[in-house]
Here is the input.
Amino acid sequence: MLRPAQAVNQDGSFELGWGTAILCFSLVPYFNAFLPKTVWASLWTAWIGYLPLICGAFAPYGIPKIIKRFFTWPRTGYVANPNEVKLKQLVMLMIFGGALGFSISLPLVLLPEIRAAMSHSGAPDNLPGIITHGIKLLICAGITIYLWPKVIAKRSPLPVAYDAALVNQALNQTTAGRKILRLVRWSLLSFFCGIPLLVCGLVFGLMYLSKPTMPRAEVHWPQLGFVSLIVAANALLYLMVNGVALRQHRWKWLVLMLLLVGPIVIAPGIPYPAVKSELFPIFQQFPPVALSIGLLWFLSGAATLIWFIEHHHLPTTEAL
Here is the structure.
């Protein structure tokens, strides 16, 4: 049961992939501010502006695959992971997430336009825009409904994988087992609900105290809340990914602390990109904070990979 969990990030592949993804996402505003308007005006070159997003979307999938193929499996052998996501499943999940996001956000844009059109007599000027947004909403809703059972469906475990259903069935047959299951459920509920709220509150307080030292004087509460949520979620994700390896790599506790306080110390020294008028103000604080978080993830993964290569040598011909 622990072997697949240890094999997920024993070489730092997940940290490198996730750190690269965050760095790519945070570089999008800088990249867009650097590109001239002629690039966006042409249909043949506009795709360049979305290149960091594409690289960031596939980095958590591609980088671990490359590292395990060329560094990990030749040294330790192949370890099957029952929760491994295939490329087809990843693409479907990305399409489903995008369609679900548009299905939720498009009504917020469509309803004010409909109210404005109904308040004016005669043919509204924004009728083509209302029709276009309505068609987009129908398409996104259809894609969401179609992909929902394909993405959410539970996959059958591997024959040698840990099957929680069998354990729950055995525990439900005794009184002590049912008490253990209730204790596990309450522990998981407190872990996934209480710890994120506690960490987010801590980060939010640190962000509020350090607000006068930030380069921009006007930092609004939604920006602090959004940044605190990003920092707290990454710290919790780092703890979950390295929970099995923290006893072996005690220096990762220091990285965990830096993920909490690093954006407060590092982010103010990173210059902001040229913010365009169409961007929401809530995202103005995101690029410097994400750069600092992605850099910490990447450095932690690189250190883990170097340690793995030094302590796991390639087998010799005699051993084979």
